[in-house]
Design goal:
Length: about 350
């Protein structure tokens, strides 16, 4: 037998095993230190046979905004709204507010006004900031905004910023769930007013969209009156899909508070709210008396625009904006009779 085949000579495999044992012994103190690091630096251990329940969602419609209505957040938001936000809106949108006197009936002798639901049209992200500035006291300091859960509450940073700056609450833009309506009802009972956009989202083409029943449903469920609001001008300053903000002027027109009549369905009440906002839009193009006449004759210009599509629809939108945007109106020239003939 050759000497190389002697059974006592260590093989290459044995050498590798000894090297591995040495490395393991050297790494043992480090492994022990890592293993001693516990919660909260590492996830807790789970015994065998125990099923860990799924983590509850924290974003979207499940985001908790209660902290944003506590004293520290309210104080920070009030300071921001009175300073930087008001200066920004004044410099960019230069709003003119009409119809505040129509809310006077809601004022009580002790200035303890009831919570209301403001229902404006929606063309731009500027609308929410504009409403936060235009809504008068005593509603402004206790105001929450219904925001799309899938857009404003999809990340932790965006959700926290929306809740703190705008006092936004997440809501499904398609339907109002019982959970959301119960939360809103509790806030209204606590004196918080609500801004909700019945269209469900911003206009995709500059024209309005048909109203959904969210505002009407919440009013019937909570007993809070609905205040129709028309916002004019924000669609040309920062429309949906725009990457650059333009400066200009805007209007905010408040209507008379509305309540559902006995036996009225949510759909019928929502149609009345849409008609009221449409009449306010006509008022920005003409005047109060003409808008009331058109509303009585059911000839108010539709917020959803003409039925045809393409360039004709955009042409009609540009003509409408010439009448209402920037706070300018083309008044009809009155032909006085010639008494000399």
């Amino acid at each position: 037998m050759a000497r190389d085949d002697a059974p006592w000579k260590p093989s290459a495999l044995g050498k590798l095993a000894r090297v591995a044992d040495s490395a393991e012994k050297a790494a043992t103190p480090l492994v022990r230190k890592v293993r001693t690091v516990g919660f909260p630096y590492r996830a807790p251990s789970v015994p065998r046979g125990v099923t860990v329940p799924a983590k509850e969602p924290e974003l979207g419609a499940d985001y908790d905004t209660e902290w944003a209505r506590r004293a520290p957040a309210r104080a920070a938001r009030k300071a921001f709204a009175a300073g930087p936000l008001r200066a920004f809106i004044k410099g960019v949108a230069s709003p003119t507010v009409y119809g505040v006197d129509r809310l006077a009936d809601l004022q009580r002798l002790d200035d303890d006004a009831p919570a209301v639901i403001f229902a404006p049209n929606h063309h731009s992200h500027l609308d929410t900031a504009l409403m936060a500035v235009a809504i008068p006291e005593p509603w402004r300091h206790k105001l929450v905004t219904a925001a799309a859960a899938d857009y404003f509450f999809d990340t932790k940073l965006k959700a926290a910023a929306s809740a703190l700056v705008l006092n936004a609450i997440p809501i499904d833009r398609e339907t109002t769930s019982r959970r959301s309506s119960d939360a809103i009802r509790k806030m209204i009972d606590d004196g918080w007013s609500l801004v909700i956009y019945p269209e469900g989202g911003r206009s995709p083409d500059g024209w309005g969209q048909e109203f959904k029943g969210g505002a009407a449903y919440l009013s019937a469920r909570t007993g809070a009156p609905v205040v129709p609001v028309f916002i004019d001008g924000t669609g040309s300053l920062f429309p949906k899909g725009a990457s650059r903000l333009k400066a200009g002027t805007t209007k905010v027109v408040f209507g008379h508070p509305m309540r559902p009549v006995e036996g009225e369905s949510t759909r019928r009440f929502s149609a009345r709210i849409e008609a009221a906002v449409t009449a306010l839009g006509d008022e920005t193009l003409t005047d109060f008396w003409t808008a009331r006449q058109n509303a009585a004759r059911q000839t108010s210009p539709s917020l959803t625009g003409p039925e045809y599509q393409g360039w004709r629809r955009q042409w009609a939108l540009s003509e409408r904006r010439k009448l209402g945007t920037a706070g300018l109106r083309r008044r009809q020239r009155r032909a006085w009779p010639d008494l000399g003939n």
